Every structure is written in structure tokens, then in C-alpha cells.
Predict the 3D structure of the following.
Amino acid sequence: MSSHMQAGRIEIRPNALTALIDGLASGTIDVIDLTQPLSEKTPLIQLPPPFANTPVWKTHEISRYDERGPAWYWNWFEGGEHSGTHFDAPIHWVTGKDKHDVSQVPVKHLIGPAVVIDKVAEARKNPDYLLTIDDIRAFEREHGALPKGSWLLYRTGWDERATDQKAFLNANDTGPHTPGIAIECARWLADEAPILGVGVETVGTDAGASHSFTPAFPCHTFLLGANKYGLTQLANLARLPATGAVLMVAPLKLVKGSGSPCRALALIQR
Ligand code: MN
């Protein structure tokens, strides 16, 4: 509660930010880091020829308390916009080419309720598992409708592989095999669902095998085309409740950027 003077009397009103600060201080609100570490070891998507690929993330030292800078340590880095835990802006895909770049995304869209749909068992059985509209309907029967302005976080257990490029991409001679979203479900999430975007634990929002879907990469095609967002390589989704968490995602404000490595955090009530 907070108070302020108004025409000689004290008005008491609830203040959500005061409650948030109290919750953070007392520990009844916890902050969960949904971000994977970003380094030269971070797994990156590998497209087959003739497509161009993102180079490995690289940090270059400028000085470290030495003759190049006696009292300071700092680096510069090179790496792709779509490296590690990162945000896909609508302009990333040809269907969203006239829509927002990452610097133009309204900041209100970077905070919202998160729902977590757990398909770990399915993905363990079948690495090509595809989330369906029926899965979401079943989730809604148990947990209520997807909230307006929410982020749908799709948990598959793939974060266990996040430090191992080979296991993370899970490719064989038929290409990568990682879980994703069925074509009709991607279309529904883009056109019908009241969500802002989809977050996943895998290297991209689409399934590993989605290069051969019609259309290819349906999640990118439909969601980014609908001015919605993607969030990839998330960690610690196991620590979130199915509903009730608040997601905060902070991509760099890269002018004309198609996406950005980002810090993704969740607030949860203990
Ligand atoms: Mn991406």
C-alpha cells in the first residue's frame, strides 16, 4: 500500500510496484533466469548448403589491467543476431519483412504473462514431436484460456542438451531432429491465439525437420508474418508454473536488427 496527500487527506491505494518490491525483498517473488550462457561454446543453428550460416560467437580482449588499459578490463565481440538465447523480430522472416525490426518492438510486448506447456515426455519419446492445437486445447481445459498478451513457452527438456552442439542440433543424414510446432498449430497461434510470441528451448522456434514442411518453417512463416515474436534456447522452464509467471525479455535495441541475443527473466510467486 502507498499513500499520498490529496486535498488535506491521506488516500490509501494498492500499488502493484510496491507489492512487487516487497515480494522481491521478502522472497515471495522469485526471479528465474531463462537465459543460456553466451560464449564461443554456445550451440548455433547450422543450415545446409547453399545457405549462409552464423559464425561462432567470439570475444576479443581490448585490455585487461595491462599496458593497453592499466585499470580496466573490456572486450569486444562478434556474433550473430540469432545466437544463444535470442529474440526473433517479425522482420527476420520474409512474411514479416515490412513489420518491426528488433529496435521497433513495442516495449510493452517485452513483458507479459507466461504459460508453460510441458511436452518433455513426448519429446523424449520422439525428438520430432510437434505441438498440436489439441495439445493447447487440453492445456486450456486444465489451466484456463491462454491469457491475452501472453508468451507461450514450450518445454521439451531440450535445455539439458544446451551445452553440447551435437546433441542440441541432433542431426543425422536426414537433417536435424528437434521438437517443434505442427503447421496448423503454428497458423492458429499466429492468427487466432491471443499470444505475443512463442518461446522454446531448442535452437529455433521451428522443428528441426521443418525445412521439409509445407510451408517450410511454419512457426517463422506464420508468427513473424503476424507481427508476433520468437524466443529461443531458453533455460530453466522446469522452474516455472504452468500459469502465473511473468516473462521479461530484453533484446538489444539493434537498429534494423532482425533479432538479438537477449536476457530472458521470469518472475514467479513462491
Ligand atoms: Mn532466430
